[in-house]
Design goal:
215 residues; 23% strand; alpha+beta
Length: 215
Amino acid sequence: MRDGPERPAELDALLAAVDAVHAADARFATWPDPWDGPPSDDAYRRVTDPERYRTVGARVEAWCRVLVEAGLGVREPAVVPWGWTPTNGPEDLIRLRPAVDGALPLLLDVGSTGVQGDNVRIGVGEPAVEVAMVPQCGCDACDDGSEELLDAVDRVVGSVVAGVLVHESGDGWSRTVTPEGWSTSNADRADAERAEAERTGRRRWRTVAGSAWWS
């Protein structure tokens, strides 16, 4: 998770602990960005080393362990939210409930595309809404190296824990904002719905945000 202009100082100790736990995991793996320029066409149909993507599941477990041991969260059996289809099955869902009121719970859906633990869907709120999928694609062409991959996990989980993530979703659109940037789906529909709300005074979208887990 790169330093951002609004990054809370409390995250530094947590990230250092996550790094240490992750590095001791047998699934830990690092690799550079394999591309110096555009990827080859055949790389979009190839997954050379699916095993290394298990480092995603290891990163998620490191976050869970650190947050629980720090007394910031409680790991609970997850109930599948309405509209959420588990990647593998309910047994692979992890729910982390923050110890303080007003903070957002995390739903971590650790799945498998090629091997167990090679991707995670991250949900926040109650009921949980999906805010990220890491990696979005595991083919060789979409591989930007392990640093980018793990930073994607840290950026979302860290922002939720720090209370600085905001997610909005409406009729066929969504937007997720963190201090490092934002992502959106169907931006045109989002703009249209916002314009309609400004015109009518009726806001129909859902906003998910919460306080820091250490508040």
